[in-house]
Specification:
With about 190 residues, this protein is mainly beta. Helix content is about 10%, strand content about 45%. It contains one helix and 16 strands. The relative contact order is 0.27. The structure holds copper (II) ion.
Length: about 190
Amino acid sequence: MKLTKLFTTTLVFLAAGLAAQAGSISGKVPHGKGGTVVYVDSISGKTFPAPEKHVTMDQKALLFQPHILVVPVGATVDFQNSDNVAHNVFWPNVGGNKKDSHNLGTWPKGQVRSFKFDTVGVVPLLCNVHPEMSGFIVVTPTPYYAEADSSGVFKIDDVPDGTYTLVMWREGSKPVTKQVTVAGATTADFASK
Ligand SMILES: [Cu+2]
């Protein structure tokens, strides 16, 4: 009986500990055009393993699909041509830094070329065959990120308690930062201007 009680008490403590770890950040971004990404900026002294699973950026119907792809640093992206025409993929910079520009080349339907993104920043994707094609890969320094939905609501799950810098990026706008202290389920709104 006593042992059972001890066991139960231990379980309750363990559950409480786990719950404290599993915080989240939810909130709203200002109204505006374009997809919006919110992520936790780099955390001093903390690194994260590169994800093993590849993510796909499709070239389909003369579009990069999805238009905006968010991946944590170290992720490998498979660029897949699903059209009947050849596409090229290049980016003139990463986060505005021209030394990180890269041209993956041009390839026909059904082929895939992969690239591992080891530099944090926004990667503006272009195709030199179709100047109207444009897409973005947002390479985040932490695995804590989310995209806002059409009503401007975002939620980042599984964020450990702590104080962080939150970054909001929107196509065509300068990033906006905000300090947030996570303690369990936490709210952080980006105020409308
Ligand atoms: Cu193209």
